[in-house]
């Protein structure tokens, strides 16, 4: 149990375009989903916390207009990187929690902006 | 402020031997949770083990055990009988303050299991 999927696993896009990443909890209802960003050889950096049906809470320094998060249902959250630029290239990974302690992570999405 | 420290950037271990990955934490919150995750080269974060601050016994999950020393604020991960597939990055994490369930991660330890 506790499986989280992410799509796409890899994406390459042109500078200035927008990219949407989906995070789904497959076998449980995720009341809270988290979005992280990880640069090579570094730890995970929390970007935002989203609760189903409400606006996401962004961490300090994360631009909410650039990283749009929608948590429309108890099994789906999306992260849209708007007007992507090369510096947005990174590994984006989501996690989901049913309200208990443990967060279960998706497999991550590698974004490359050219 | 809460903080997680992993002082070992990398570790080697021989196959079938045990290895301890260090993690220390700092918090003023009496209620907290400690986690270990494994991240192989493919990138996914695999949950390994959880220890609650009020748990009386050290957590164990198969070959993984957590050496929880509350007074020292340490939560070391012990992997017994290492396997080649254990080679990965290991992150220690702590549940953040309040009821947000946010995780604060350490910088990670890269474990290499040698045949």
Helix share bin of chain B: under 10%
Biggest sheet character of chain A: 7 strands, mixed
Strand content of chain B is over 45%
Helix content of chain A: under 10%
In terms of topology, how is this protein built?
The complex is a heterodimer of chains A (114) and B (115).
Chain A: E1 4-7, E2 10-13, E3 19-25, E4 32-38, E5 44-51, E6 57-58, E7 67-73, E8 76-81, E9 90-97, E10 104-105, E11 109-113
Chain B: E1 3-5, E2 10-14, E3 19-21, E4 24-26, E5 33-39, E6 46-52, E7 60-61, E8 64-69, E9 74-79, E10 88-95, E11 103-105, E12 109-114
Parallel strand pairs in B: 2-12
Antiparallel strand pairs in B: 1-4, 3-9, 5-6, 5-10, 7-8, 8-9, 10-11, 10-12
How would you sum up this structure, described in words?
The complex is a heterodimer of chains A (114) and B (115). Chain A is an all-beta fold. Chain A is built from no helices and eleven strands. In chain A, a hairpin with a 5-residue loop joins β4 (32-38) and β5. Chain B is globular, with a radius of gyration of 14 Å. At the A-B interface, β5, β9 and β10 of A face β5 and β6 of B.
In short:
The complex is a heterodimer of chains A (114) and B (115). Chain A has 114 residues and is an all-beta fold.
Structural features:
heterodimer, A: 114 residues, 53% strand, B: 4-stranded antiparallel beta sheet, 12 strands, 0% helix
């Amino acid at each position: 149990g506790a499986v989280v999927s992410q799509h796409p696993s890899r994406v390459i896009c042109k500078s200035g375009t927008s990219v949407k990443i989906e995070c789904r909890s497959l076998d449980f209802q995720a009341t809270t989903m988290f979005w992280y960003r990880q640069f090579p050889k570094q730890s995970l950096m929390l970007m935002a916390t989203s609760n189903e049906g409400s606006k996401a809470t962004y961490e300090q320094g994360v631009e909410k207009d650039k990283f749009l998060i929608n948590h429309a249902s108890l099994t789906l959250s999306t992260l849209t990187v708007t007007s992507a630029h090369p510096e947005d290239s990174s590994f984006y990974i989501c996690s989901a929690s049913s309200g208990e302690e443990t967060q279960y992570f998706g497999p991550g999405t590698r974004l490359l902006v050219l | 402020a809460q903080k997680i420290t992993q002082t070992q950037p990398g570790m080697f271990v021989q196959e079938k031997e045990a290895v301890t990955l260090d993690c220390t934490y700092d918090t003023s919150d009496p209620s907290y949770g400690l986690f270990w995750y494994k991240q192989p080269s493919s990138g996914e974060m695999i949950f390994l083990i959880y220890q609650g601050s009020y748990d009386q016994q050290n957590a164990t999950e198969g070959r993984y055990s957590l050496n929880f020393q509350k007074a020292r604020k340490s939560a070391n991960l012990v992997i017994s009988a290492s396997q080649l597939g254990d080679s990965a990055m290991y992150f220690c994490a702590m549940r953040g303050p309040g009821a947000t369930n946010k995780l604060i991660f350490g910088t990670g330890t890269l474990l290499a299991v040698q045949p």
